[in-house]
Amino acid sequence: MTSKLFKQSVIPGFGVTLGFTLAYLGLIVLIPLSAVVWKTTDLTLAQFWATVTEPRIVASLRLSFAASLIAAAVNACFGLILAWMLVRYRFPGKKIVDTLVDLPFALPTAVAGIALTAIYAKNGWLGQYLEPLGIKVAFTPLGIMVALIFIGLPFVVRTVQPVLEDLDKEIEEAAASLGANRAQTVFKVVLPIILPALLTGFALAFARAVGEYGSVIFIAGNLPMVSEIAPLMIITKLEQYDYAGATAIAVVMLFFSFILLLLVNTLQAWTAKRTGRDL
Amino acid sequence: MSIEVKNISKNFGEFKALNDVSLEFPTGKLVALLGPSGCGKTTLLRIIAGLETADSGQVILDGVDASDSHVRERQVGFVFQHYALFKHMTVFENVAFGLRVKPRKERPTEAQIRAKVHELLALVQLDWLADRFPSQLSGGQRQRIALARALAVEPKVLLLDEPFGALDAKVRKELRRWLRRLHDEIHVTSIFVTHDQEEALEVADEVVLMNQGRVEQVGTPDQVYDHPATPFVYSFLGSVNLFHGRVEGDVVHVGPHQLTHTGSTADDGSQVVAFVRPHELTISAEAASGGVRAEIERILSIGAFSRVELIGLDAEGQRTAHNYEVEMMRSELLSKHVRQGQEVYLVPRNLRVFQEPDFSI
Amino acid sequence: MAGGISTAIDAKSIKCNQKLIDATQESSWVRRLLIGVGLCYFFLFLLLPLGAVFVEALRKGWDAYLAALVDPDAWSAIKLTLLIAVVSVPMNLIFGVAAAWAITKFQFPGKRFLITLIDLPFSVSPVIAGLIFVLVFGAQGWFGSWFMDNDIKIIFAVPGILLATIFVTFPFVARELIPLMEAQGKEEEEAAIVLGARGWQVFRYVTLPNILWGLIYGVVLCNARAMGEFGAVSVVSGHIRGETNSMPLHVEILYNEYNFAAAFAVASLLAVLALVTLLIKTFVAWKAARIHAELKED
Question: Do residues B148 and B97 lie in contact, with contact meaning Cβ atoms separated by under 8 Å?
Fold first, then answer.
């Protein structure tokens, strides 16, 4: 590493490790991903547009994004409550709750999918009580939301929790000594401080939900125009050997994921700058 | 507003943070709570503020028992050690916070808030920083903003927890003077906590010395420095030389030597510790009655002052384990013609004697 | 001491109200409400599905449960899943350590961008992860015809499954190690080199002990995802029974054949894996916190 750009270091292994990293990254991630871009060039712009505006595809994209948005919002709300009680309160079973919050990270999605279906199907554990009330969960968009809530749950809790833990008690005492009541302290002081973390968790949960497949397909029922999600449409296109069509849907989804990723990074950079904290 | 605490006790588990503390703080004065870390001074401050509850005892603000009232009802301004500024708010919003959270009926109009905040920022001489965020300020600026924020709600009492603790030495010195001048301007009854004796003596009207959850002495800076009431106060304020010995009448027997004391609280004939400050010891080249034998180990001269470090000698001229320190003007030292390795006698001009078992830090 | 402070000496201690005045606590009813809501949410969305797996698995009794697991197709699915883990975890482990070493011990332009690229597979839908390998190695793909001519099967075969799994589990180890090693700095490594240690020795004796728990953490998470991956594997597998069905895919097949008890039986094994993963994760976090506390005390 003789280039001036690379700061000299006495620690060995720079060339080997960086070289291996770049090669592996290229082979496993970058080259295959670029295949998506390459494949879309098989389509003219008109064909691309025709594919992504097929009513079934539009419906699936709309469903995927809407259900993901709602699920992420629900998780933002209840995830905040879970994070709050895990940091601030003492209650029986706290250790167990804290450990199991990560369950959706560790439990294979297919297992979550069939378990949720068993619970919410019309003769299922809860489904049998909800059915007479006119609430259908399994095989409807509502079921998709339930599955997406499950897989997105840890994101908000785990991004908000450390920020709440690090929150200086003095800040809240300062607010109280200035005459703020508890609600004012929480809403004017504490929530604004954890808002960036909350938004990050929300965006992560949302991004994960949009691409989710395994936990959703069992409970969704996959009715065309009603409960088909976008990833399923990719698989459907693939089964019809319409590789270009599948790729077109993938490009739309990748584009939105990219925007979201950018948003999260900008948000974190902005917060770091304003509060003078390092990333 | 006057502040009074009566019989305050507070334990953290086994640890006695405060042990039956009773104090009266006079209106309009700037008082320092001084003591080593863990002496209970911060706990006492937090109990006065209402951030902590005492196990027993009362906090009386303006003659009214406030022990049960919430911190937001006590009308105290509290400045935290690490400032506790709201990072997501501008300096202006930080100072305005206390006004904005008032109940709707008492809340000033936006124009009044604006005027008040700018008046306070002008008071702390930081008006030009109104739109900055706390992360963009230096430590000293943050401290002044924290003070302005606490003053915004027009507190009847101002409490400051180690106000200069997190600052570097130079800024600390500047802010000390600045706080003193500010207090002379606003005259709010103020209490600040510090472990720095120089800070307490320089800034405060009154100093409360605390140790192990108890009050050791209360008085003006001169009183506590010149007339320490306990061995703890003696050794905590400034450097000091100790002599262990036995008291008889006006004399303390230290090994083979005899020293004349200027005040004793000990019983005649009992084991005692005698204290003398470095500038109250005289070096004498000739054998003097009422002096301790010692050898000059090192002479340090900085500016106009000199410090002489000595090691004690017993009757046979053998070195003992006792070290002594003497301070004097450099010119005075030069006139004495002493040098390193020379054997001399140390004669105290002001020697205070305390009963031996009393002595503990 | 006129006008000064006086210490009152009256010793009668007035017991003050023990009512807790904590400036940083909600009132007890708010606290109870929040805990209640949080626990309900936890129960409904986490505990209930977990319980459902085990209850449904044993619905037809132990015999049916064991029969579902010793079934040859189930057995071959278990073997394939283990193979996936044995191949993909070490590969991503080596990559993770190399990447973390290059990124945290050296300064070079584009570092932030490289970290973003490493995280990329997390923001790609698993289905798309499968799709890209079909596009590269499929019959009509970039290298498809070449592999076909040489009679090498990638897609709808085990190599494709391995590739897709490596892709989706790509960032796990690296993203655990990078912040950890960044926080630790490089002083200790430099000290080792000054004392005469060579490259591998520096890593083996200085770096590795420092990052061991983070490494285990990353490996455990990587392993869980590798064994449980469904979407990506589903796209490239071809679902050939006894050959290219991993455990999650086998669960799907059994489920779609309405063989629910068997599906949940296989699923319960994966659920146990998840619980073990969480236990190790908790243990590692506890261990790391303890080490951190010890360092702080020093």
Answer: no
Is A29 contained in some domain?
yes
Contact B10, B163 (CB under 8 A): no
- In a mutational test of the B interface, the residue from C1, C5, C17 whose CB has the highest number of chain B CBs within 10 Å is C5
Say yes or no to pLDDT of B175 above 70: yes
Q: Quote the CA–CA distance of C236 and C139 in Å, as a whole number.
A: 12
Q: Smallest CA–CA separation between C31 and chain B, in Å?
A: 19
- Domain around A11: 1-42
By a Cβ cutoff of 8 Å, what residues of chain A touch chain B?
168, 170-171, 173-181, 184, 188-189, 192-193, 195, 274-277
Does some domain include residue A230? Answer: yes
Q: Which residue in C7, C14, C22 is closest to B57 by CB distance?
A: C14
Amino acid at C1: M
Could you report the per-residue pLDDT of C46-82, keeping only the tens digit for each? 999 999 999 999 988 898 899 888 889 899 999 999 9
A175 and A231 co-located in one domain: yes
Cβ within 8 Å of B, C 23-82: 23
- Considering only alpha carbons, which residue of chain C is nearest residue A15? C102
- Kindly state whether residue A279 falls inside one of the protein's structural domains: no
Do residues A120 and A80 share a domain? yes
Tell me: do A106 and A116 sit in the same domain: yes
Query: Cα distance from C12 to chain A (closest Cα, Å)?
Result: 30
Distances, alpha carbon B32 to alpha carbons B29, B53, B180, C52, in Å = 10, 21, 12, 64
Convert the pLDDT of each residue in A145-199 to its tens digit: 999 999 999 999 999 999 999 888 889 999 988 988 888 999 999 999 899 889 8
C15–chain B nearest CA distance, Å: 5
Helix (H) or strand (E) holding B191: strand B189-194
- Asked if A35 and A143 sit in the same domain, the reply is no
**Does B31 reach chain C within 8 Å, measured CB to CB?**
yes
Q: Which two tokens stand for residue C169?
A: 């589990």
Report the C-alpha gap between A212 and C86 in whole angstroms.
Answer: 25
Whether residue B22 and residue C12 make contact (CB cut-off 8 A), yes or no, is no
In a domain, A261, yes or no: yes
In terms of Cα–Cα distance, which of B102, B119, B103 is closest to B111? B119
pTM over cut 0.90:
no
